[in-house]
Specification:
The protein has 174 residues and is an alpha/beta fold. It is built from six helices and eight strands. The strands form two sheets. The chain has a four-stranded antiparallel β-sheet. A four-stranded mixed β-sheet has the order 5-7-6-8, with helices on both faces.
Length: 174
């Protein structure tokens, strides 16, 4: 088997910030996904969200939404990527998605609840509905124990919102 690429190599290939791609991401999230423009802009300013171009062998560069996964120290350890088109492989994750997550909203200390969702776009949609929540995307459907432990430590109610599909069913099975 071929050796795995390092996170920094994957970041450079898939997730390197690009201002033109970020403009496309902003337009996509607002016009196509129906997110509040101010909410999207807040995530861009906080450097939790940006656009990137994946270079392709054929055709032009492919734009991606890049949602950073941060660890408890605030370091980027991974990312969820969402293509702006529906061609092959419209979603992927790079790096760590078991101890680093895309999280938005209030800090865990100030939040009224912890909401755990599958995708980064789901996280933004949930935050748009509940601004006092801490919303975390698990980039899939398995809820890591570290999130539950943190919620328990702060006595937060937990909302788990998984999609009604095979992946969501897998998440409920554990």
């Amino acid at each position: 088997a071929a050796p795995k690429k390092s996170f920094s190599d994957l970041w450079d290939y898939f997730a390197k910030p690009d201002p033109r791609a970020t403009n496309l991401v902003r337009d996509y999230l607002v016009a196509v996904r129906g997110l509040d423009p101010e909410l999207v802009e807040d995530q861009i300013r906080a450097e939790l969200l940006h656009g990137s171009f994946q270079r392709q062998r054929y055709g032009g560069p492919r734009p991606w939404c890049v949602f950073r996964h941060l660890d408890e120290q605030g370091e980027t350890r991974g990312a969820t990527l969402r293509a702006l088109d529906e061609e092959a492989q419209p979603k992927r994750s790079i790096g760590d998605k078991t101890t680093a997550f895309f999280g938005v909203g209030s800090s865990i200390i100030d939040a009224d609840e912890l909401a755990i969702v599958e995708s980064a776009v789901d996280a933004l949609s949930y935050l748009q509905r509940s601004r006092r929540a801490r919303v975390v995307s698990v980039a899939g459907s398995v809820v890591p124990e570290v999130l539950l432990t943190s919620a328990r430590a702060h006595r937060l109610p937990i909302t788990v919102a998984l999609d009604n599909d095979a992946a969501g069913e897998h998440g409920w099975q554990g």
